[in-house]
Structures are given as C-alpha cells and as structure tokens.
Amino acid sequence: QVQLVESGGGLVQAGGSLRLSCTASGRTFSSHVMGWFRQTPGKEREVVAAIRRRETSIFYADSAKGRFTISRDNAGNTVYLQMNSLRPEDTAVYYCAADLSWTKVVTRVAEYWGQGTQVTVSS
Asked: In angstroms, rounded to a whole number, what is the distance separating the alpha carbons of residues 84 and 15?
C-alpha cells in the first residue's frame, strides 16, 4: 500500500513558478513509477510528467516540455514537479500517482493517487 500526499500548490501570477511535492508512505517508493497529472472541471485528467524509479526514463506532456521538471528523491520518498513560466491555462488540480508499471502511469490508470493540490495562475 502506498499513500500519497501532495503539497506546494497555490496562487501565482503568470510567468511565476511553483514547486509541487508529493510524499509517499511505505517502504516501496523507490520501486514505483511516479507521475504528475492535472485536471480541470469538465475535462479528463491528463498526464503532465512521469519518471521511472531510477530516472532512467522521463516523460513530459507537450504542454510541460521546457517549463516543468519532474524529479524524485527516493531516500526521502518524495517526487517533485518544478513548474516555471506558468500560464493561466496551467490552472488545475494537480495530482501525483504511483504504480509499478510505467504504462499504467502514462495511461492514467495508476494504482495509487493523492488527493490533489490546487494550482491557480492569474493573468
């Protein structure tokens, strides 16, 4: 069992930065693929970024490339999403997720999910 808790969301002006954190419970964090997702009302949840357990593979959605950076600290059971050059269209609830399968994470069917943290970007 893995429990995930996100933090770091908030209100920021366009062009600003935020760093999201997701801390996992359990001793198997380092075995899991981790991902960040976002969702706005009326839309499907979309994958933002994903990272393999040893950072051997990293995926970014086109909307995140060049602006967002995903990283992980396996010793601290934490995955991060550094978001720079934020835009109003980045406004969403951001979730982290974990699964042993890369495919399940990038196709949005990961086993474990956090409760989400709100990110609001004002213009």
From this structure: 7
